[in-house]
Design a protein that fits this description.
This protein has five helices and ten strands. It has 190 residues and is α/β, with parallel strands linked by helices. Strands 4-3-7-8-9-10 form a six-stranded mixed sheet, with helices on both faces. A two-stranded antiparallel sheet has the order 1-2.
Length: 190
């Protein structure tokens, strides 16, 4: 998606340790016009009318998933990284290691919101090593729902997450795939 790539080059900041900060437009402050175009693009790439739920993980994926869901006319469900008193009843459970935060989260999703009748599109902002996506896939499989695909805004192609997800037979669409990143430059896969 050319518009996204141009924005990453213009406003993205590469930090030591292969960290790309896009917080000025994607996952802290959000450019809704850009995210609206992202939503349209995911709808174009996933034309299936079978999709009944959009699934993401808190927190950065929620805003993006909400905009995407408007183009599918379905609800968004998000996996939580902490148990709270608001979650009652049974939950699906998995563990997810965060590349950015360097910690492991116990991720939960209420069984009320995902079941074997659902057809799920997973949406997230980043894909690096694939841990969050694998956790979401695990939750969907545990529910008996069908994974219709996974959409990622930015994939770090120089890390193994995309290959790992694709090797599981998941239809993965990444809007921008970064092949290499240094303190002074980024290159994208075509």
């Amino acid at each position: 998606m050319q518009l996204l790539k141009e924005r990453i080059l213009k406003d993205g900041v590469v930090k030591p340790g292969n960290v790309l900060k896009v917080d000025s437009f994607l996952n802290h402050q959000m450019d809704i016009d850009l995210i609206n175009e992202i939503g349209k693009e995911f709808r174009r790439r996933f034309p299936s009318d079978k999709i009944t739920k959009i699934l993401t993980i808190e927190a950065s994926g929620i805003g993006i998933a909400c905009i995407v869901a408007q183009y599918f006319g379905v609800p968004v469900v998000f996996a939580k990284k902490t148990q709270s008193i608001n979650i009652d009843g049974e939950v699906y459970h998995t563990k997810v290691e965060s590349f950015t935060h360097k910690r492991t989260y116990d991720v939960i999703l209420s069984k009320k919101f995902l079941n074997e009748d659902d057809h799920v599109l997973i949406i997230d902002d980043f894909l690096a090593n694939g841990c969050a996506m694998l956790g979401l896939i695990d939750l969907v499989k545990g529910s008996g729902a069908t994974i219709e695909g996974a959409g990622v805004v930015i994939e770090k192609g120089m890390q193994n997450g995309g290959d790992l997800i694709r090797s599981q037979g998941v239809h993965l669409e990444s809007l921008a795939i970064i092949d290499s990143m240094t303190d002074t430059s980024l290159t994208f896969r075509n």
